[in-house]
Amino acid sequence: MRSIFKTGAAALAVTTIIAGSAFAQDLSGTLRIISDMSDPAPRAVMEGLAAEFDEMHPNLTVNLTVVDREAWKTQIRNALSANPPDVVNWYAANRMAPFVNAGLFMDITEWWDAGDFAGLESVRGALTQNDRVWGVPYTYYQWGVYYREDIFNELGLSEPETWEQELANCQIIIDSGRHCYAIGSRFLWPAGGWFDYLNMRTNGFDFHMALARGEVPWTDDRVRATFANWRQLIDMGGFIPDHQTYDWQEALPLMINGEATAYLMGNFAVDLMRSGGLTDDQLDFYQFPMINPEVTAMGEDAPTDTFHVAAGAQNVEAARAFLQFVTSAEVQTRINGPEGLGQLPVNANASVADDEFIQQGFEMLSQNATGGIAQFFDRDWPAEMASVGMEGLQEFMVFPDRLDDILDRLEAARQRVY
Amino acid sequence: MFPTPIEKRSRAAQITYQSLLPVALILWLLPLIAVMLFSIRPFSDFGAGNYWGVPSSFELFTNYGRVFFESDMPRYLLNSVLITVPTVIGAVALSCMTGFALGIYRFRGNLLIFFMFIAGNFVPFQILMVPVRDLTVSMGLYDTKLGLVLFHIAFQTGFCTLFMRNFIRALPYELIEAARVEGVAEWRIFWFVVLPLMRPAIAALSVLIFTFIWNDYFWALVLTQGPGAQPVTAGITSFNSQFVAQYHLMSAGSIVAAIPPVAIFFLMQRHFIAGLTLGAVK
Amino acid sequence: MTAPATPLHQPRLEATWMQRNRMTVTPILFLLPGLLFFLVYVISPIFQSFNISLYRWDGLGEARFIGLDNYRELATDRNFEISLWNNLRWLVLYLLAIPLGLFIALFLNQTVTGIRLYKSLFFFPFVLSQVVVGLVFSWFYLPREGLLNAALQFFGLGTVNILGNPDLATYGIIAAGLWPQTAYCMILYLTGLNAVDPEQVEAGRLDGAKGWKMLWYVILPQLKPATFIAFVVTIIGALRSFDLISIMTNGGPFGSTRVLSFYMFEQALGEYGFRMGYGSAIAVVLFGIMLVFIAYFLWQMWRDERAARHG
């Protein structure tokens, strides 16, 4: 892992010397970065980036703090307001809104306009709010169903394309004494992923986004139809029990030891599946199947993770150079490879790694996501609504009979939030 | 003595008691024993579902080694020391003085001030949270060890004053009278007469405050973030996220985090219990 | 203070002033640093919180005065109601630490060999931080990997996911909290039992008091100071419960384990916006509950204090 950075640093040092890029030379002082890339592979990537950037600028000290990804969600506001670092990690779309509105992120529209981020034009929208741009993306990734190919083969199953096939598959899996899906909903958002897909497939992408914008009541019959589909899987025992107690990582061993055959997740999970002992022969990926035959244009979740400059940043020049650095085509290619994040580069000039899952994801998103691309439940919905909503989604997965009460609560929250 | 000493009971009762003791202890410490057993297992045992059987290999050194060499744990431990020790010194020093003032002198408002210290010591932290955080931020001490230390000293002064004042009250007042008659200055009475007598109280209080502060989590969460200043109680959550779902390492990490106060307790047991139970006997 | 008559006398007069007032000046000087710290960091924030609870404030911008609106919102807030009920559960059930601690103290109050070590080992959970206790118990409760369920299964009792069940989770956390708290009460009672007057015990024996009767009529009255302290620390511990909840369930599942102290933290420092005013209003309510107990404690201590003066 380290080696890719060493060679990369050397290569980059050479290119910067040749290009004589102005920003590369006179950076000094300290660049403080707080990152939420706390899982093993992303942590190594982030530490590598910081070390490399530090090495590139002799007069600059890069001070990196990696904090727990879940804890960061409650700490970021504190960090930005009390003792702002220069650069922080966060998420695109609506999830930025509270910090944009509170004036905690720096408006970096000018840097975009000055051409700092060549190759990123197509993703500018996800970072735009109130017509200003508030950060840069550094990676995005597909969601979908990761499954145990070997168990599918053993049971004679093939990748489902329709909901009927999905349910039939699941029944066979359950009959073989396994669960269809691993999930760990302790931190709520994995349940959000399920809702996203079920709702996009049941009611279509446009309806999904209308719901996110608060234009449809949660008690709408179409929303209920989504939950009814979900309930089919819950009632047949498709999900592992006790998922509300586990992190998504803690539920992974169940898939690795074969007690569950699939996991609806983002592509970042592949790293832990592989390091848990699954080979590429045992593991495969399929797009979430169609549910409503009338919804033929598939919508997909492809969340974008981001870097932002704090409004109170001390070393703005270094922060600007760092954002240029991480979004450059060369770095993008490198950090998103299977040795690094195992995800998709945001820079159009970067190359997509030659990895089974990254390639499948790229293909799916560029060719079979005609419905539209969503960020994710906790990024498309306003933050407060997302928090109440995901709590309800988790509760539904454990107590599906409480649906009416849950939807009433979500509806009350919708009327308050928007 | 109550209950009746066991040696006055029948032989059968004695044997029952003697064998019941270790069983009761094991049951009592069961959750902790479970964690200790986790911390010496290899990772592969968890994948294989072998949680409670014989470990397939004995990994004590590997696991604890990784805690110390592959994580920020040593840094968090150091932070904890750098927060705890100055707090102990500060709080004990301040309360020796306040305790002396409230225990020796009669003046109007004495009891009122004393009760204010006691009352402040009981308040829920949350009522202080917003203003204290604000104050710390505005002094530029957010996310510094000093910010935490200052607050801890102030808050612990309440409890320490209660403790010290009651201890000084129990000292023989004649000693002080005698010194005054000889014309010894008040501050010299404090330094040469009272302070030496307070040694046991200082020892007891130091051990107590050490554990209290070491174990603080709430204020660490409110006033710090990241390995630069966070003590181990708050750091352990980041540690756990680094090794998520790896129960063997998370267990080893919590045990490491717990060791210093436990060690202090076993080393200074007499003082610790004397401090804790002050007032439990008339 | 009188002005000195002549410059010549000034030093002597000053000395006498110091001398005359040393009994007032000395305590003031000795009190000052501690008192100042305490006023700035503890006393004045209490009043500031009261004030902030009347505002809408995100911790950054301008605070807007809204009177009692925060409190009105509390009255209709479902999560506040859940928190309040959970606080009540904590208060009541946490008090179990007192009889449990007494029970263990009675069990251990013997003089067999090695009993000192037993006492220490029974006590030492108290010195673990609540964070560690929380982690230890959440692993103990794990539905698949936890020892509790391994044991239940061993006895053929099936499994239970305590922290994943909204009806059980709070009790599971309280049980974890009782572990160190019982140890604390135990040590208080052990010390108390040590000091029980043997003559009174003998006298009780002669009167034919045994077992429970002896405990109730002879021993417990003598343990009153220990019981009082146990009560004080247990009540405070119950209302301060934050660490365990934050570590073990983070308020979940579906927000069912929140208590006021945790909910206040969530509101005031949450991701979705700092609601300092609303958080402060919750803290004020919590403070109000605590105030009832504080008043009672202080009254008790004041009585003791007076008795000591007159005695």
Descriptive account of the structure:
The complex is a heterotrimer of chains A (about 425), B (about 280) and C (about 300). Chain A is of the alpha/beta class. Chain A has 2 domains: about 1-140 and about 305-350, Periplasmic binding protein-like II (D-Maltodextrin-Binding Protein, domain 2, 3-Layer(aba) Sandwich), CATH 3.40.190.10; about 145-300 and about 360-415, 3-Layer(aba) Sandwich (D-Maltodextrin-Binding Protein, domain 2), CATH 3.40.190. Chain A is built from 18 helices and 13 strands. Chain A has helices at about 1-20, 40-55, 70-80, 95-100, 110-115, 150-155, 165-175, 190-205, 205-210, 220-235, 250-255, 270-275, 315-325, 330-335, 355-365, 375-380, 385-400, 405-415; strands at about 30-35, 60-65, 85-90, 130, 130-135, 135-140, 145-150, 180, 260-265, 285, 300, 305-310, 370-375. Chain A has a 5-stranded mixed beta sheet with strand order 2-1-3-12-6. In chain A, strands 8-9-7-10 form a 4-stranded mixed beta sheet. Chain B is flat. Chain B has a single domain, classed as MetI-like fold (Orthogonal Bundle). Chain B is built from 15 helices and no strands. The longest helix of chain B has about 30 residues, at about 75-105. Chain C is mainly alpha-helical and about 300 residues long. In chain C, about 70% of the residues lie in helices and about 0% in strands. In chain C, helix 3 (about 80-95) packs antiparallel against helix 11 (about 225-240). Classes of the chains: A alpha/beta (about 425), B mainly alpha (about 280), C mainly alpha (about 300). The interface between B and C is large, with 101 and 105 residues.
Features:
heterotrimer; A: 418 residues; alpha/beta; D-Maltodextrin-Binding Protein, domain 2; 2 domains; four-stranded mixed beta sheet; 48% helix; B: 282 residues; mainly alpha; MetI-like fold; 74% helix; MetI-like_sf (chain B)
